[in-house]
Design a protein that fits this description.
Its EC number is 3.2.1.21. This is Beta-glucosidase. It comes from Streptomyces bluensis. It is an enzyme of class 3 (hydrolase). The chain is an alpha/beta fold. An eight-stranded parallel β-barrel has the order 2-3-4-5-6-8-11-12, surrounded by five helices. A hairpin with a 6-residue loop joins β13 and β14. α8 runs antiparallel to α9. The longest helix has 25 residues.
């Protein structure tokens, strides 16, 4: 007789949510005083995105947010993480806020609260005002100070009603995909500029955290969302371990070193000394960056597998971060990325929940006592409606089940994980991949913009309602 299956239950206070970002869903790019961001410019540049697609309309959340919030409520979500469009609030990245731009977010927050859904604001999800990029972008120190002013404006407008805040989303992508490999906006390919951008994003986080605290109630939680990587090696050979050290420094230490510990890894400075002298790290910067955090957001999709390689090789191309002749890993041309074995999502990313467990346990050690949230986790599949208009996505259910089980296992192992935001609430503009990759729990017909919850949305709603993972079917 088989052993009875013990239900996997989560703490009663666990926060169940979903996440989006402004440029991917809002549309209305020329309404309410909004001016172009770097993603408007990049996506309208021929050859930069799949099919030349862009976010001009996206899924029209700007006009349809009441419908979308009602759908969140129907699905029983306890929280919704969204980002603010900087150029909607502050069109040139400088000066006073445009109130009509802030009003959209005020209305959205009020709508969420009226349905009992906790809003969680991300201030920066990659859409720098084009005016600031024209002035040099993130490689310029001034951009960090402009971000702090912007953070203060949004904090003043929403801080009385929004308790959960994130300064930056995945600064690694901003710095290294935007300024090194060029597969993300603004599409630059300058290794030193990417490292300067990383430092100034760190500085923006520290200055922004201080700015938020100056205008918001002390009860509010301030965090950052990092796409930290679980880096593994093909062997224990010292050369392979050294390769993993390089990638770990560039994927993780370059951000969590200053943010959590007030210092860059010495191994990072050494590995990149042929590219930059780091003279843009000024006296006092590390103290400004190293602000106490109330929580840490972690975004996870797949682990990395590396080994040593010939520095004359073609460079890392199996890293899952888009095709480019330029590497997003400055100073790591002697590192080879390998496709990790196992089943893959439509993105070509291997499904491996153990990487999420390992990441949570790492940050439990790295920042003891700091609450953790999964601020993004999810999968893209080639979802299509059946003849009755229903969208069945059993692969996504299996993906979510495995990763939620990994979260629960980490909690049992001592990780203080407070919540989980599935990426994404609905299908949307997936950056350089255009509209081909569908991450949503809600299917969007891009011709009509009709929303249809997928079977994974119903499954997730039941998990959120009960706080219990059902047995694997």
């Amino acid at each position: 007789m088989p052993e009875p299956v013990t239900p996997v239950t989560f703490p009663s206070t666990f926060l169940w949510g979903a996440a989006t970002s402004a440029y991917q869903i809002e549309g209305a790019v020329r309404e309410g005083g909004r001016t172009p961001s770097i993603w408007d410019t990049f996506s309208h540049t021929p050859g930069k995105t799949a099919g030349g697609e862009h976010g001009d309309t996206a899924v029209d959340h700007y006009h349809r947010y009441p419908e979308d919030v009602a759908l969140m409520a129907e699905l029983g979500l306890g929280a919704y993480r969204f980002s603010v469009s900087w150029s909607r609030v502050q069109p040139t990245g400088r000066g006073p806020a445009v109130q009509v731009g802030l009003d959209f977010y005020r209305r959205l927050v009020d709508e969420l609260l009226s349905h009992g859904i906790k809003p969680a604001v991300t201030l920066y999800h990659w859409d720098l005002p084009q005016d600031l990029e024209d002035a040099g972008g993130w490689p310029e120190r001034d951009t960090a100070y402009r971000f702090a002013e912007y953070a203060q404006l949004v904090g003043e407008a929403l801080g009385d009603r929004v308790e959960h805040w994130m300064t930056l989303n995945e600064p690694w992508c901003t710095a290294f995909l935007g300024y090194a490999s060029g597969v993300h906006a603004p599409g630059r390919t300058d290794p030193e500029a990417s490292l300067k951008a990383a430092h100034h994003l760190n500085l923006a986080h520290g200055l922004g955290t201080t700015a938020l605290r100056s205008v918001m109630p002390a009860r509010n939680s301030i965090a950052v969302s990092l796409n930290s990587s679980t880096v593994r090696t093909v062997s224990e050979d010292p050369a392979d371990l050294a390769a993993a050290r390089k990638i770990d420094d560039l994927a993780n230490g370059v951000f969590h070193g200053p943010m959590l510990h007030g210092a860059y890894p010495e191994t990072l400075l050494k590995a990149t000394e042929a590219i930059t002298d780091w003279s843009y790290v000024m006296e006092g910067d590390l103290e400004l960056i190293n602000q106490p955090l109330d929580a840490l957001g972690l975004n996870y999709y797949t682990p990395a597998l590396v080994s040593a390689a010939d520095a004359e090789a073609d460079g890392p191309r199996a890293d899952g971060h888009g095709a480019s002749a330029y590497s997003p890993w400055p100073g790591a041309d002697d590192v080879k990325f390998h496709q990790t074995p196992g089943e893959q999502t439509q993105m070509g990313w291997t499904i491996d929940p153990t990487g999420l467990h390992d990441l949570l346990m790492r940050y439990t050690r790295e920042a003891p006592g700091l609450p953790l949230y999964i601020t993004e986790n999810g999968a893209a599949y080639d979802d299509k409606p059946d003849p009755d208009g229903r969208v069945h996505d059993p692969e996504r259910i299996a993906y979510l089940h495995g990763h939620l089980a990994a979260v629960r296992r980490a909690i049992s192992d001592g990780a203080d994980v407070r919540g989980y935001y599935q990426w994404s609430l609905m299908d949307n503009f997936e950056w350089a991949y255009g509209y081909e990759k569908r991450f949503g729990m809600v299917y969007v017909d891009y011709a009509t913009l009709e929303r249809t919850p997928k079977s994974s949305a119903r499954w997730y709603a039941e998990v959120a309602r009960t706080g219990t993972l059902p047995p694997v079917e």
